[in-house]
């Protein structure tokens, strides 16, 4: 077997290393196979000729990490805007999703993976149905993902069992696949869509497979009130009682929390995926992110699905996170730019229980992006971290590497057929409409 080594030396680059004393350095980054093996201001000594890449005018960042979403919902982008969560789900999303075929999920996911890669996201978490199709897209695209079959348990015991078996089989079959780029989790959709005894079964599966749990939690005020009516407890205490937090857990949203609930999440090491764009669009509220971070909770960023956002631009989520908490608290330091960037990268990796991704340093996986800094809205070059959070967008991403392989070059995807995906996704939406 012919073994070829993949080695790159990036020179003349500006790199976000995010250390407290010197967050940005100018110099060199060496990539060997799937890893960063050197990053620093001095040119590394090399005993062989390797491919050099000129990073002049580019700002290199860790690949962005989107910790909550439902990517196949790109097919429903713009279908059912300006509604609150429950109405949006019950009257718009669920009736349409009931008609989704595996093929729809494939093309919807491909459209989103394309959007994410071109926009600088290198890892995403996805909770949905027909997850084999999402996994297939991830495998082909070269992207990294944490995948989980989300289960809504508002159905007969037989169907509940079938869905749980399917979620278990998916989690088992795909964990570690695609050269380790895919990992899996276990996901009851939410406390309001899964009865307590059903959630306990997911906890048991997570224990059996040694996997983390991901679920929606405390997204709206109405959901919290309904939980108290139905079970006599707010969602945090309810999930704790059912054993969910006995597993490594990532909850999405966590908008409506008391001080005591923040302490419970911190004490149990529960991570939170903050989805500012989706929470604003669905009028769910503003999560208590500064308090969560202060209590020691890992808070990362997610877009949620493309139908409640309505894009998958993680630069936008970082900017929103940095801005809305200043407005909500009156404190300009509520979420500084550097913290927002960490939420979109390093804390994202921690939330997904992934080791070796989320920062640019020797030994880490080579998941990184380059943005073109020589554009009017990114000049002058005062503060690159500030520009990445407050001025940049997904459209500024020039190159993307995942696992040491370049997947986006000058904005073009090297792994997926963009033209075909655009055509098939539009056709899939039209097919859905025709069947509805
Ligand atoms: C069972 S697969 C995932 C399921 O979640 C739905 N969904 C999308 N966005 C949200 C959200 O913000 N809160 C709760 N549920 C959401 C999606 O439509 C799928 O049915
Ligand atoms: Zn969601």
Task: Characterise the protein shown here.
The protein is α/β, with parallel strands linked by helices and 436 residues long. The protein folds into two domains: 7-63 and 360-413, Urease, subunit C, domain 1 (Roll), CATH 2.30.40.10; 64-351, TIM Barrel. The chain is 39% helix and 21% strand. It has helices at residues 85-97, 102-118, 131-141, 157-174, 196-209, 221-231, 235-241, 259-267, 276-281, 289-294, 314-329, 337-344, 346-351, 384-391, 418-435; strands at residues 7-16, 24-32, 35-40, 51-54, 58-62, 64-66, 121-128, 144-151, 182-184, 187-188, 213-217, 249-253, 271-274, 299-301, 368-372, 397-402, 405-409, 412-413. The strands form three sheets. Strands 1, 2, 3, 4, 5, 15, 16, 17 and 18 form a nine-stranded mixed beta sheet that branches. Strands 6, 7, 8, 9 and 10 form a five-stranded parallel beta sheet that branches. It is globular and about 65 Å long. It starts with 6 loop residues before the first strand and ends with a helix. The mean pLDDT is 97. Ligand LTUXU72L is lined by residues 70, 85, 89, 93-94, 97, 127-129, 150, 152, 189-190, 216, 219, 278, 304-305, 308. Belongs to the metallo-dependent hydrolases superfamily. MTA/SAH deaminase family.
Topology:
Elements: E1 7-16, E2 24-32, E3 35-40, E4 51-54, E5 58-62, E6 64-66, H1 85-97, H2 102-118, E7 121-128, H3 131-141, E8 144-151, H4 157-174, E9 182-184, E10 187-188, H5 196-209, E11 213-217, H6 221-231, H7 235-241, E12 249-253, H8 259-267, E13 271-274, H9 276-281, H10 289-294, E14 299-301, H11 314-329, H12 337-344, H13 346-351, E15 368-372, H14 384-391, E16 397-402, E17 405-409, E18 412-413, H15 418-435
Parallel strand pairs: 1-4, 1-5, 6-7, 7-8, 8-9, 8-10, 11-12, 12-13, 13-14
Antiparallel strand pairs: 1-2, 2-3, 5-15, 15-16, 16-17, 17-18
Helix pairs in contact: 2-3, 2-15, 4-5, 11-12, 11-14, 12-14
The structure holds ligand LTUXU72L and zinc ion.
The ligand CSC[C@H]1O[C@@H](n2cnc3c(O)ncnc32)[C@H](O)[C@@H]1O is lined by residues 70, 85, 89, 93-94, 97, 127-129, 150, 152, 189-190, 216, 219, 278, 304-305, 308.
């Amino acid at each position: 077997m012919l073994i070829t080594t993949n080695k790159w030396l990036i020179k003349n680059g500006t790199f976000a290393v995010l250390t407290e004393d010197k967050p940005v350095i100018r110099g060199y980054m060496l990539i060997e196979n799937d890893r960063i093996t050197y990053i620093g201001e001095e040119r590394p000594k090399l005993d062989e000729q390797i491919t050099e890449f000129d990073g002049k005018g580019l700002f290199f960042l860790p690949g962005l990490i989107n910790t909550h979403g439902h990517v196949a919902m790109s097919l429903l982008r713009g279908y059912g805007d300006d509604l609150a969560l429950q109405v949006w789900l019950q009257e718009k999303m669920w009736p349409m999703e009931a008609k989704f075929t595996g093929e729809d999920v494939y093309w919807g996911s491909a459209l989103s993976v394309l959007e994410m890669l071109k926009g600088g996201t290198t890892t995403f978490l996805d909770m949905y149905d027909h997850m084999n199709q999402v996994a297939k897209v991830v495998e082909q695209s070269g992207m990294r993902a944490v995948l989980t079959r989300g289960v809504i348990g508002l159905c007969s015991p037989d169907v509940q069992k079938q869905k749980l078996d399917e979620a278990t089989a998916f989690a088992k079959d795909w964990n570690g696949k695609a050269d380790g780029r895919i990992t899996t989790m276990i996901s009851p959709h939410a406390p309001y869509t899964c009865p307590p005894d059903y959630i306990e079964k997911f906890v048991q599966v997570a224990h059996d497979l040694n996997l983390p749990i991901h679920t929606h939690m405390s997204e709206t005020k109405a959901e919290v009130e309904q939980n108290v009516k139905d079970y006599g407890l707010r969602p945090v205490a309810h999930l704790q009682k059912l054993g969910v937090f006995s597993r490594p857990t990532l909850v999405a949203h966590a908008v409506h929390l008391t001080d005591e609930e923040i302490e419970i999440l911190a004490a149990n090491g529960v991570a939170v995926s903050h989805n500012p764009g989706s929470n604003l669009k669905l009028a769910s509220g503003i999560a208590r992110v500064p308090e969560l971070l202060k209590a020691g909770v890992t808070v990362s960023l997610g877009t949620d699905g493309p139908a409640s956002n309505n894009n998958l631009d993680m630069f936008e989520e970082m900017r929103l996170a940095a801005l809305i908490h200043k407005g909500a608290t009156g404190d300009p330091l509520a979420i500084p730019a550097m913290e927002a960037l960490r939420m979109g990268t390093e804390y994202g990796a921690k939330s997904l229980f992934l080791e070796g991704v989320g920062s640019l340093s020797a030994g880490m996986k080579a998941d990184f992006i380059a943005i073109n800094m020589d554009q009017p809205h990114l000049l002058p070059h005062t503060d690159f971290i500030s520009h990445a959070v407050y001025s940049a967008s997904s459209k500024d991403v020039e190159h993307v590497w995942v696992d040491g392989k370049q997947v986006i070059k000058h904005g073009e995807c090297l792994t997926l057929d963009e033209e075909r995906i655009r055509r098939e996704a539009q056709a899939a939406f039209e097919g859905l409409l025709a069947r509805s």
